[in-house]
Records
---
Amino acid sequence: MNKLYVVGIGPGAYEEMTIRAVKALEQCQVIVGYTLYVDLIREHFPQKEFLTTPMRQETERCRLALDTAQSGRTAAMVCSGDAGVYGMSGVLLEMGREYPQVEIEVVPGITAAVSGAACLGAPLMHDFAVISLSDLMTPWELIERRLQAAAEADFVICLYNPSSRKRADYLKRACDVVLRFRKAGNLCGMVRNIGRDDRSSSICTLERLRETKTDMFTTVFIGNSSTKEVNGHLVTPRGYIL
């Protein structure tokens, strides 16, 4: 059987992978992925063959995984977080039409919105939106429209890819959009390097977030109008009677 698993490995730590993800990687012969993500799991699967590509070679990486599976070796494409949230599962399923003999199975993982929220407390207890600020695939004009809609509707907003060297001011621009509908004191949170030894997190106001420097390893949470701080935790009430 020509089999390809698309595996979400979670935020980075082995113990934060799902049991199903671990079993899929144990069953495969070849693990394919972005170099950084493969390095997170390499030591836990020493008997496997690893095939890696650098950033921005996503389609080449998918083709490599599909070709490997088609050759008769069971393969796994690994993605950080969940393979279906800004991951490779969609691309692989589309490209998989060219490989009808390859069976593709998507294995879910813990995405940064969920793992980062746990670090801060419970900021996602009510309706929320997840938006990436990366404009590699989506024009900024569309990102801004989505930010505006989520802010106006009072969603909690989780931001992926808030800044990079080429997009140093994107988080500031995003905050400016949200500030059209939220108060400057609206509570927010940030978590960097989720699931890794040097993880850090903090709670701040929207006004302060606007001036904060972040990077691609940071996940940002913008609370809604009800979000509050409780004993050092960021909490968005759902409306239970206490």
---
Amino acid sequence: MDQNSDIIILGIESSCDDTGAAVLLNGELLSNVTYTQDVHKAWGGVVPELASRAHEARIIPVVDAAIKNAKITKQSISAVAFTRGPGLPGSLMVGVSFAKSLALALHCPLIEVHHMQAHILAHFIKTPGTEYDPPEFPFICLTVSGGHTQIVKVHAFDRFEVLGGTIDDAAGEAFDKTAKILGLPYPGGPLVDKLAQQGNPQAFRFARPSIKGYDYSFSGFKTSVLYSLQKWQKEDPDFITKHLNDLCASIQFTITEILMDKLQQVLNVHRVKDIALAGGVSANSEVRRRFAELAEQQGCCAHIPPFAYCTDNAAMIAVSGHFKYLAGDFSSQNIMAMARMEM
């Protein structure tokens, strides 16, 4: 392999509680390593201080594993891409500091990546042995995660137009918080999805927000679930246990309805050929099903990411870095992490 002509990007992800590293060769994925922190389960949610300490302990072995799995040398790396934000300040700081140090030691460029833009660009990851069928510009992307819910019109690799976003809680948070109300362990979103498979989505009705435009709100929905359960448990203390599957199915159905209603409004105005789904909640079976269904109704081509690229991962950071490398968009060594970062 002629290292002088190849573009090798090392991507580093540390925005929340997943430590990730990935290597791309000329836009094709060679390795993708993720260490998921289990320490937070005992606390019912991510504890920022514990997350940053875990990143400190794992980032070197994770990066080392990604480089070894890719069968490259550190000296062959063309640039180091990293998540600058948004995310948890302490977690981001670990990744940013490591990326800056490594790039300085290797005398190679440094590339900052916006975490939510990277989720969208995960659709452009080329994986050996799989079909490469990315969405065509411009396309509409629904990004749904634990911290963000947005509808974005993507005009190019470096041009993102946010059409709508959440004014309070995100869809992923709504899944996890309502799961916690039901007494399910963290992370509750996947468990709600699993239990919902055996339930009736029409069994219970919960409040849906009435927000103008394309923005989302999930705080009222969460309050509706809480107050409804409190009322039903007064009448029957075992209500949740008796109706757990139906409750999960109804919660999942309502959240998905809220998501798809706004997306449909956008598609009625912004006519595009392709629509994409991104973010951790895109792993939810009902969201994936309804998204594909809506795309068919609107005459659009649906792009749904493989499960490996739904949740936080470094492959999406590396592919974002690859496009920035081609554009010559590099960062200074003076750059700092940004917990809050506009699209």
---
Amino acid sequence: MAESALVLFSGGQDSTTCLVWALSRYDHVETVGFTYGQRHHVEMECREPVRAGVTAIEPAWSHKLGRDHLIDLGILAEVSVSALTADQPFGTRPDGLPATFVPGRNLLFLTFAGIVAHQRNIRRLITGVCETDYSGYPDCRDDTMKALQVALNLGMDARLAIETPLMWIDKAATWELAQNLGGRALVDLIVEKTHTCYEGNRTERHEWGFGCGICDACRLRSDGWRRYKADTIR
């Protein structure tokens, strides 16, 4: 029986790495993305070029990569205000969480992804959440993923599995994983085509890619790149 997976795909570094991770393991892979009034909406424009770039790296992946699903969750920006959904300063909230935390975002993403997967007879949901080297979002934690998997399966009488290939590795190891999966070609694709910057900045080009260089997403990505390059040279 063919094994299939649905990758939560934003067009960023982590989800691109997860997409290739899934393509290297499963027979059929589909992607799903979400618009939710995000400040860095430019990431949506990166998704298709990245998908095309991935299939150009390895011919076998082009046969495995299936349909892309795009879901409009614009209502989220109205009920879950944060620095990612409104013109608010970055930094830390009074409760200690990052100002970029969008309450309920990953819970909704995985719920809707679960609906898509269940109806398409796909059993695996792949997401790039991580609690080793991240911005401090509680909905990226392993415990959250395990609890949500139980809730989805109970609520839909399904047998879905949420897989998190980046959960226990840091950003340097994520760059290394991309190199191991797709060689220099994949690393170059991630640098040139993916988008992670919370500001939506695609005018400033750094060694690690485009971005403002200041927000948490850029900081994590650039620091991971620096450590990845240091390990590569060593």
